[in-house]
Amino acid sequence: MSRDWLSVATLKEATIVQRMIGERIETADRLPPAPRVAGADVSMKWRDSMGPVHAAIAPVDGPAATATAIPPFPYVPGYLGFREVPVLAMAWDRMAASGGPVPDLLIVDGHGRAHPRRAGVASHLGVALDVPTIGCAKTLLCGMVEGEVGPDPGDRAPVVHGGEVVAMALRMRARAAPVYVGIGHRVSLETAVDWVLRLGGGRRLPLPVRLAHDAANAARRLAEAERS
DNA sequence: GCGACAG
DNA sequence: ATCTTGTCGC
């Protein structure tokens, strides 16, 4: 399908690909009634942007799948997808190959449409895998919060960029900074906010993202321990 | 032109 | 992204 987009040689090329992704995002709901939700995140060594990246796809109700690869790029703001999506796709394939059921909805640690070219890592992964995704980021890459987010869990305010609402600033927990929830692929903004809130568990980050974060970290520590 | 900049 | 210890509050 569209996994050719996983590897590009230059940032100029990547920019072209991102414009294609941005135009291909589906912003309406297209997912099963009771989706199996999983989180997606990566882990890497501190300040080692050329070292290996460890990725995890972590279902809420089952074992996580992980994969490791060396990304072709250092970290460049706006091009995160080209570092993370290839190795996340490897973890996804490993999960599919393990025989069990595959997730119907991924909550990705990073932005979706809230991106200069509407192609954040969540959208990138969703289009590449052809699966519904939600972006859930801890800080903004672009755009501004319109108004203010209320103090209580569930309170929200739109994030506007280029004249359109690209995400929702969402208070998950009192006295904790909001998270930025956005459309990745095949999920409406309202549905995205609903799922993140429902899986919040009284914490700032939704459960699937925490599980993926932990699984990716565990994979990295394991790899670092048994090498040498 | 200058500054800002997910993970 | 990640490192590290203690400290504060419910």
UniProtKB/TrEMBL annotation:
Protein EC: 3.1.21.7
Keywords assigned by UniProt, alphabetized: Cytoplasm, DNA damage, DNA repair, Endonuclease, Hydrolase, Magnesium, Metal-binding, Nuclease
Co-factor requirement: Mg(2+)
Claim: rRNA processing is one of the keywords in the record: no
Residues the entry annotates as binding Mg(2+): 41, 109
UniProt-annotated location(s): Cytoplasm
Stored InterPro entries: Endonuclease-V
The organism's place on the tree of life at top rank: Bacteria
Family, as annotated: Belongs to the endonuclease V family.
Protein name: Endonuclease V
Lineage, broadest ranks: Bacteria, Pseudomonadati, Pseudomonadota, Alphaproteobacteria, Sphingomonadales
